[in-house]
Specification:
7 strands, globular, nicotinate-nucleotide adenylyltransferase activity, about 220 residues, Probable nicotinate-nucleotide adenylyltransferase, about 35% helix, alpha/beta, NadD/NMNAT, 8 helices, NAD, Rossmann fold, binds nicotinate mononucleotide, binds adenosine-5'-triphosphate, single chain, about 15% strand
Length: about 220
């Protein structure tokens, strides 16, 4: 593969139903650790889970409010414009066509990474991008055998070698562990609670944003 020197573009995909401070904090720290541009990439129809409670438009409105006031984390809504399941390999191929040899980094929480071998055309993901694994509380570092075999020769410890290639390496990013999940946030909101310090403060300025999660 050709050598590169440009600032990496990192993609952080998720259902974001809703986005929470766990997502934002690890994405922010990944941007710092990699000195990368980080885009949050909401999935339209997530391939492996029940449909989100909030519509795509509602999740985007929440994301926009959550990202307001900073410019390091941005929003990329391309998966919402495509029909059918949001397969990550298709998104990475689109981005590769746009970005040339720029290093692309697929950011995954440790739980999502452990399940990677069930993804559509999963081995091709390593040809399309680097993978940055974000530590997440309560998730073991053990991987299924097939995934461990694929990853073993790709692991790197320093970000410099990641900047030198467009794709193909795997790096663990030791971000501050925050035990926050969208599942817990949905439970709290459905119970009429206001998880003010688990969500970006701006979401409470407009009560309409959280209506999809109220019972
Ligand atoms: N607190 C967290 N720390 C590290 N990674 C996280 C955290 N929360 C979510 N992620 C990662 O963010 C990505 C998108 O996650 P997702 O939108 O499914 O959030 P979630 O909180 O896991 O949601 P749910 O509880 O609905 O499954 C995944 O790669 C997931 O591993
Ligand atoms: O491409 C796939 O087969 C695939 C399977 C499962 C999840 N993903 C992506 O992984 C990201 C996190 O998914 P989730 O379900 O944890 O929100 C999101 O961008 C999904 O589109 C992708």
């Amino acid at each position: 593969m050709p050598q590169t020197t440009s600032k990496p573009l990192a993609l952080f995909g998720g259902t974001f139903d809703p986005v929470h401070l766990g997502h934002l904090s690890v994405a922010w720290e990944a941007a710092e650790l990699l000195d990368a541009e980080v885009r949050l990439l909401p999935a339209s129809v997530p391939p492996h889970r029940v449909p989100p409670l909030a519509s795509a438009a509602q999740r985007v409105a929440i994301l926009r409010a959550a990202l307001h006031g900073q410019s390091r984390l941005t929003l990329d809504t391309r998966e919402l414009d495509r029909d059918g399941p949001s397969f990550t390999i298709d998104t990475l191929h689109e981005l590769r066509a746009e970005q040339g040899e720029r290093p692309l980094v697929l950011l995954l929480g440790a739980d999502a990474f452990a399940g990677l071998a069930s993804w559509h055309r999963w081995r091709e993901l390593f040809e399309a991008a680097h993978v940055g694994v974000l530590s997440r509380p309560g998730v073991s570092a053990d991987l299924p055998d097939a995934l461990e075999r694929e990853v073993a020769g790709r692991r790197i410890a320093d970000t410099a070698s990641l900047r030198a290639l467009p794709a193909g390496k795997v790096i663990e990013l030791a971000v501050t562990p925050l035990e926050i999940s969208a599942t817990r946030i949905r439970e709290l909101l459905a119970a009429g609670r206001d998880p003010r310090y688990l969500l970006p403060a701006g979401l409470f300025d407009d009560p309409a944003l959280l209506v999809p999660y109220r019972r």
